[in-house]
């Protein structure tokens, strides 16, 4: 089955937003884009969950999109986070991403206000009608407080510009329903579930761990796509402990920012209300990085 959104297949890295002296560290952000280009990453995704979008001002949010698009300069695709719990704000951000040169928009289900399923549909319909930038749905009910049900996703998928979904429910049955009921390209929103979802027909991942080991993640995806199941499984099991710690020690992106700092990358601190890892958590993280051969 041919799927919409194949341009977003493979490895997308959800970029952290580096901070310095309370502001976005623009130089470090550009270095992160270069790091991903050199690693062969397919797509970068700024200002998503990992990019701490909830604590960015509107001006900062737009500035991060602009910097990433400008610095990418066509060398790598950009899936800009433009979601909001306000439909009009989502439209504005999506139009801005298109104007900045983004390849697509990653749009999370509206959070906090808990729309009905009809509300979800009308939200995405309004954005799609206002701007023709390709849309990647982002369903993460653990953060938004409301699941976009598979039937609704398949309905939204009929909108021409909705081409893919970042699946972050952790539910294999939901992913199967979306894959069998639509022609969306499905991307894992959890690093530890990339290979399981690809076995169902998924096409890659929007990765957090890819901020530090993009080549490892890309190699696992490539092995699966070549039909080398044993190599892909071995890669999965090597990645799993690190994925578990980077997503399980504390709220994302606290651990990945700590890992980047430990590895000499300019990630800077997290913004309140997020707080740094405790000393015991940091020891566990260092052990995980050492076991993976990174320290």
UniProtKB/TrEMBL annotation:
Pfam families: DHDPS (PF00701)
GO molecular function term, any single one: 4-hydroxy-tetrahydrodipicolinate synthase activity
Biological processes, Gene Ontology terms: diaminopimelate biosynthetic process; lysine biosynthetic process via diaminopimelate
Keyword Iron recorded: no
Reaction catalyzed: L-aspartate 4-semialdehyde + pyruvate = (2S,4S)-4-hydroxy-2,3,4,5-tetrahydrodipicolinate + H2O + H(+)
Chain positions of site Part of a proton relay during catalysis: 49, 112
Binding site for pyruvate: 50, 206
Presence of the UniProt keyword Amino-acid biosynthesis in the record: yes
Cross-referenced CDD domains: DHDPS (cd00950)
Pathway: Amino-acid biosynthesis; L-lysine biosynthesis via DAP pathway; (S)-tetrahydrodipicolinate from L-aspartate: step 3/4
Enzyme Commission (EC) number: 4.3.3.7
Compartment(s) of residence: Cytoplasm
Protein purpose: Catalyzes the condensation of (S)-aspartate-beta-semialdehyde [(S)-ASA] and pyruvate to 4-hydroxy-tetrahydrodipicolinate (HTPA).
Subunit organization: Homotetramer; dimer of dimers.
Name under which the protein is recorded: 4-hydroxy-tetrahydrodipicolinate synthase
Organism name: Caulifigura coniformis
Lineage: Bacteria, Pseudomonadati, Planctomycetota, Planctomycetia, Planctomycetales
């Amino acid at each position: 089955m041919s799927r919409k959104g194949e341009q977003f297949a493979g490895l997308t890295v959800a970029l952290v937003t580096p901070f310095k002296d309370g502001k976005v560290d623009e130089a470090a952000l550009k270095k992160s884009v270069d790091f991903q280009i050199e690693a062969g990453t397919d797509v970068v995704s700024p200002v998503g969950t990992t990019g701490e979008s909830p604590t960015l001002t509107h001006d900062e949010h737009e500035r991060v999109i602009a910097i990433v698009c400008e610095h990418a300069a066509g060398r790598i695709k950009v899936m800009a986070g433009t979601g909001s719990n306000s439909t009009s704000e989502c439209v504005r951000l999506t139009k801005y991403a298109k104007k900045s040169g983004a390849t697509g928009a990653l749009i999370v289900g509206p959070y906090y206000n808990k729309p009905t399923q009809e509300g979800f549909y009308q939200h995405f319909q309004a954005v799609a009608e206002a701007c023709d930038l390709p849309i990647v749905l982002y369903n993460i009910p653990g953060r938004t407080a409301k699941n976009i049900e598979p039937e609704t996703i398949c309905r939204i998928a009929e909108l021409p510009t909705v081409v893919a979904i970042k699946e972050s429910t952790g539910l294999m049955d939901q992913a199967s329903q979306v894959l069998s009921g639509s022609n969306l390209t499905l991307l894992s929103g959890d690093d530890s579930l990339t290979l399981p979802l690809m076995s169902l027909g998924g096409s890659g991942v929007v990765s957090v761990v890819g901020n530090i080991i993009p080549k490892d993640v890309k190699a696992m995806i490539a092995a699966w796509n070549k039909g080398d199941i044993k190599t892909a499984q071995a890669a999965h099991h090597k990645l799993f402990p690190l994925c578990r710690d980077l997503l399980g020690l504390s709220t994302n992106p606290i651990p990945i920012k700590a890992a980047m700092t430990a590895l000499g990358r300019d990630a800077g601190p997290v913004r309140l209300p997020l707080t740094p890892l405790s000393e015991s958590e940091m020891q566990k993280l260092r052990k995980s990085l050492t076991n993976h051969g990174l320290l």
